[in-house]
Amino acid sequence: MENEINQIIKQVKKGNKDAFGVIIDAYERRIYQHCYRLLGSFHDAEEVTQEAFVKAYTKIHTFKNKQKFSPWIYRIATNTAVDWMRKKKPLYILDQPIAVGENITYLDHVKNTSETPEETIEQKENQDEMQQFLLQLPSKYRVVLVLRYMDELSIKEMSEVLDLPIGTIKTQLHRGREALRELMHGRAKGGQ
């Protein structure tokens, strides 16, 4: 896929504006989901996704064909989302529709491996609670945890996306996990 994308990028750089639509089609859903996980809001994720693709299009001339496209677009989306978070507090609504006119929420997309309705309800409650914890974390920790555990990127890929040294990524992951653990531990204490 990367070779195909690199060929399309060459076409875009030569002035073929329509070719960028193929890139959007290939990455829009993943970038949207990534932004939603970071922001926790359907509307904000949609806005940031659009803004990220506009930025990618205007900066396509800076993309080097020797690098992989996915870390490059994820970096743009992540930076755009972080900027958005600085400007606006995220909404804590998890059951918003993923797309206009659809009755499917982010939580509906999580695999259901439960066998009983009680397990399904418990799993949904756990997912809701985890999203709430993530939204309480500082953005630098939330970003690395989402990239690692939800987007399933490797440490090296995360380093490329965030343009940070691998050591910094590992440190932020560790601190993010610790901060998440503290939030969860505090909730457990408060709940008992």
Automatic annotation (TrEMBL):
CDD domains hit by this protein: Sigma70_r4
Domain RNA polymerase sigma-70 region: 24-89
Highest taxon of source: Bacteria
PROSITE patterns reported in the protein's UniProt record: SIGMA70_ECF
Keyword Disulfide bond in annotation: no
InterPro entries (alphabetical): RNA_pol_sigma-70-like (IPR039425), RNA_pol_sigma-70_dom (IPR014284), RNA_pol_sigma70_ECF_CS (IPR000838), RNA_pol_sigma70_r2 (IPR007627), RNA_pol_sigma70_r4_t2 (IPR013249)
The keyword Transcription appears for this protein: yes
Similarity comment text for this entry: Belongs to the sigma-70 factor family. ECF subfamily.
Name of protein: RNA polymerase sigma factor
Gene: sigW
